Structure of Cucumisin protein:
Amino acid sequence: MGLNIVIFSLFVSATLLLVSSGHAADDSERKAYIVYMGDALESKSLAVEHHHSLLSEVTQDEEVARQSIIHSYGKSFNGFAAYLTPDEAARLQENENVVSVFPNSFRQLQTTRSWDFIDMPLSVKRNTQKESDIIVGMLDSGIYIDAPSFDDKGFGPPPSKWKGVCQTGVNFTGCNNKVIGARAYSMGSRKNESAADDVGHGSHTASIVAGVPVQDASFYGLGQGTARGGVPSARIAVYKVCDDSGCSDVAILAAFDDAIDDGVDIISMSVGGPAPDYFADPIAIGSFHAMKKGILTSCSAGNDGPQLSSLTNGAPWILTVGATATDRVLRTPVHIGKNIKTLGVSFNTFNLEKKMYPLTSGLRAIKKGEEPNNFDTCDSTTLDENKVKGKILYCDGTFQHSTIKKMGATGAILRCGSSFFDAGSTYSLPVACVVDEIGSRIEQYLNSTKDPQGVILRTIPINATAPFVAAFSSRGPYYRSHSFLKPDIVAPGVAILAAYTKLKSVSGSSLDDRFNVFKFLSGTSMSCPHASAAAAYVKSFHPEWSTSAIKSALMTTASEIRVHDENVEFAYGAGQIDPQRAVNPGLVYELSKNDYIRFLCNEGYSGTRLRMVIGEHSNCSSIPKFGGQDDLNYPSMLIMQKDLVSTVSAVFNRTVTYVGNGTSTYQAFVKAPTSLKIKVSPDTLVFNEVNEKKSFTVEVNGPPLKHKSTLLSASLEWTDSVHRVRSPILVYPISILDQ
């Protein structure tokens, strides 16, 4: 989810279906709902007939049923979207053929240096032919295909397995051998006329995954170098589900339905939002059916950090990715008077001509007779244009950069919280975001100086100790389930230079005349495609590996975070991706479809509802138990303590699969705080052939946790002197979430 893109509100479409009068349903109550019905039927035509029959039954009118339907899903799973009244939705939920009914909502959209930083240089060893056969499905805001990152020079025709289409339309004349497919979804009132990216987010994420190398790329001189994706030979298939208003659940499910059937290998989705239930979450539903077809879905964790339990997209079959910074951060110098010199945050390419400019504040520039707004000091409706013109404006709270630019302001300095300070944004005039302490000093200076002065300089690169987890990156535990650790991994997501669209200005303002094919963005939206590319890179060497094997390889070979974070693994999971090491992990933790079904059983799903989802006549009692604390062969281990008086006591059952060469002996090594006693049995595993499996237990014991905010971080590492297969272990009290 990119923080620099417009923050999309989560709202339910208010579009109403116009039907003839005299029907039982009140037109004003009709809203878009999704009716999920589980696994796909034998043919989509049968599904469409069934959907119409169900709608006719609840509306009691054939014509209303025909007009109500928005979309039928039937290629990869079964369901439909329709305009329903609350009463009709409730009656459909009671139908034995329906798994869930939930209202459509709109979810949020969540590099020259980043790939080098994670030890994946341009010269990295590649299996180019296999990489060229990999198709990454991008569910996002479309693509600006004229960007140099998507040039198809040297590419052959699409892989023979590709079954998708290329929909042309406004500002999108066709695909090429790099971008081999494109679909746009017009659902109800939403009219995505083509896959052309008029937001910029989709082009950015797609180029991080698979953009071809482009030399001398920069954002007006900032970050100059070779911009490229992690798997530059891979193909891109675009599914436009987002626009400036957000990402519709109806469109997201339609895109999953198509992408799975089209033949993609990896799905990358930098979109997210809350959902009350796994079967009322379009991303959890779509990614589950993708997993069943051998397709790994990589998702952004969200940008609501550093609060605990703020993470989204946390289903165990999803690769959930948080964001880190590299050793190059961008900072904007700010000088106030003679004594305040600081580094703010923004992506500022403007060069102001003078050494100093008059400085004022939103409170000082208020219109005569207006009441000051202490929570939003630069409310454009209260500002006096004559008091703003030619000055740098200090703001405590939000502001509209286009409006103050129109008023003639020279620039703006914003007081920002810590979660925004790692991000950075692009504005239509010189702007810098400063921390609270500097903001207080600026206010004091303004109140004590007759002729306050200031200046905002051009953004510069600064070396930093890295990686560290971005403050905005959402933290675990996952609010819907506390039995496994999330996020899974972290990847670069701060100040990433990648492709952009020329269909909007770089700041999004109509007053900005800067249009560029590269731009810096920050967010877990940027870290997600790094992980997607890493997964594709591993798959290019091991096309036969399961989704869980690829995910395990990325997690157990991840590098540890150098800069301490108080939320430890809830911030960074298993660590920072290391794609080269992940190609040869030595051992992997595999999960089958039955493992995920067992997980759903343990979460309370059962009976007909579960059978419709999995598409089989099995039930919870027929799924063999795995045992242990979490009953799940996950590459990490999590222990939740319900109180501060019980001792820590848990046993985890785990099975690893050998994916090395020849014979090998692995020894277990444990790192743990002195208060935890961790025993691994057996502590030696001997493998004689590839794909051989060995099981072991991890027993964790300790005294009661001392405080409601105590986090005990440990790890288990299997090593044969060549490979290091590391699993994080985290103990936490449930009370930590009450803070």
Q: What stands out?
A: The chain has five domains: 27-105, 114-324+474-582, 328-463, 592-627, 633-738. Residues 3-27 have pLDDT under 50 and may be disordered.
